[in-house]
Amino acid sequence: MQKILDPGQIEALASRAVPRLVLPVPGRLFAARAARLRELATHDSLGGYLGFAAAIAAAQQAALDGLELPPLDPAACAVAFAHGMPPVPARGLRRGPEWLALFARIAAALAAQPGFPPAVAATGARLAALAPAALESHAERLLAAEDGRDVDPAAAPFVIAALQVYFSVLAAQLRPEDVAITERGGTCPVCGSLPVASLVRVGAPYGGYRYLHCGLCATGWHRVRVECTQCGANRGIAYQSIEGGPAAIRAETCDGCRSYRKIFYEEHDGAVEPIADDLASVALDLLLAEAGFHRASANPLLWQPAD
Fold this sequence. Notes:
Layout: H1 7-14, E1 21-22, H2 26-41, H3 47-63, H4 74-82, H5 98-111, H6 118-128, H7 132-144, H8 156-171, E2 195-200, E3 210-214, E4 220-222, E5 237-240, E6 249-254, E7 259-265, H9 274-279, H10 282-290, E8 294-295
Parallel strand pairs: 2-7, 7-8
Antiparallel strand pairs: 1-4, 2-3, 3-4, 5-6, 6-7
C-alpha cells in the first residue's frame, strides 16, 4: 500500500540535501541590523527604542574593528563534534578578556550618543565602573536566563551587545559540515542558546527553507516548516498576523504547548532581520498574550522582568 506523506515529512526527507547551517558573517551582520533598525524606527511607535537598538548595532559593528580572537581549540571542538554538543557553548565556555574590551568600547559609544534619555548614559557609566568579576556575573546571569529572572533589564542590552559580537566571531571560525544538528533541534547547535525567531529564506541554496536564528551568535539552523519549534508538534500549528500588517511577519503558534515564535519571510521583504523585526513587532506579541499564548524565548535586546 502506498504511504502518503504530509508536507512536514516530505521536507524532513528532503532536508538531507538542504544546507543545514548558516554561520554568521560578523563583518556585515551588525551593519545590516543597524540599517534595518534605523529604517523601522522611522515608521514605528517604538521608534525611540528602535533607534537605541540601532545605536547598539552600530556600536557593535564599530567594535569589530581591530578585534582579534584566539582560534578555537581544535581538540575541544573535536570532542564537541563527536558528541553532538555545541562547540562554542554560551554556558560553560571560558571567555577570554576580549569580550570585556568589547563591552568597554560598546558602552562608551552608547554613553556618548546624543539624544537618548540620561538613564542610558547613567547605566553605561554604572556598568563601566564595575570590576571584571561583576561584569562576568552579569554575563552569566544573562546567558542562563530564559524567563527574565535575575536579569537587570537596563543593563542587559549593554552586556548582551558585547557577548553577541564575541560569540558571532567565534561561530564564524567553524565549518558548517562539522557541526552536528538534530532533526528537531530547538537550541543553537553552535552555542546552545535559544532562537529569537525563524526566517524563511530566498535564493539558492537556502530558498524556501526555514532557519531558526540564534539570538546570541546569529547562527541559523534548518528546521522543517509547520512544526512547533518549542515542543516539536506538527498538529495544531497556526500562523497569526495583524490584519493589514506586514506580510513578512507572522507568529507560529502551537495549540499544544500554547507557545509561539515569530517567523519572517524574505520573499515578502528581503531586508527582514530577525532581531530587528522582532523588536518592531511588539504589537503582535501583545495580541498573542491576550489570546493566551506565551513567547517561547525572549529577544536578547528586550528583556522583561519575570512576574
